[in-house]
Design goal:
The protein has 190 residues and is an alpha+beta fold. Helices cover 42% and strands 28% of the residues. The longest helix has 44 residues.
């Protein structure tokens, strides 16, 4: 590459001279050694700039890849299984669901217990973000209770919860699935 730059500079100087222009004042003579030295300096500056640009582009690409990975993980949908049955859920768009997705990334199994004849409750294993609001639940609602318990309703109740999602099943299907004893639910990213 250095020879190409030197050759280009020499050719440029020759063309300028032939055209009646001068790259330097009349009293200064430009030798081949000076042109070669200038070409070498330009080549070194170009090499440094190319290296810096390549390093910058590599850093930018790594940052974009990490950002894409984060977006990809966040965009992946979370699946819910009750026992062996996968059920469709419309998840809320909130910090609690994002935290739950992080836990579900490696598979999260929760042993649930029947409570009150209208819900199944289970400990998540740790506290996650919460934004409790007074809520009257309906069959199919999935909520966070006390920041560390997930509750799946097949009946109704009124309390301060953070909404997580809604199971897309009928009330009868939910009762058949949830009202016949304790169940295990599994959350994973699909």
């Amino acid at each position: 590459m250095r020879m190409n730059i030197a050759a280009a500079l020499t050719a440029g100087l020759v063309l300028m001279t032939l055209a009646g222009c001068s790259a330097a004042p009349e009293s200064t003579t430009t030798s081949t050694a000076q042109i070669t030295a200038s070409a070498k300096e330009i080549s070194e500056m170009t090499t440094e700039k190319t290296t810096a640009t390549a390093m910058s582009e590599t850093s930018e690409a790594a940052a974009q890849t990490e950002e894409t990975d984060n977006v990809t993980e966040a965009a992946r949908s979370m699946t819910l299984k009750i026992g062996e049955r996968e059920v469709q859920v419309t998840w809320e768009d909130n910090a609690s669901v994002e935290d739950l997705k992080k836990l579900a990334a490696s598979g999260l199994t929760i042993k649930m217990s029947m409570y009150g004849g209208f819900e199944q409750v289970g400990f998540i294993g740790q506290a996650i973000s919460r934004d409790d609001k007074q809520t009257t639940t309906e069959p199919g609602d999935i909520v966070l209770y006390s920041g560390n318990q997930i509750v799946v309703f097949y009946g109704s109740n009124s309390w301060a919860y953070t909404r997580l999602g809604k199971i897309d099943l009928t009330e009868k299907e939910l009762k058949d699935l949830l009202s016949n004893g304790d169940v295990t639910i599994t959350l994973s990213l699909g």
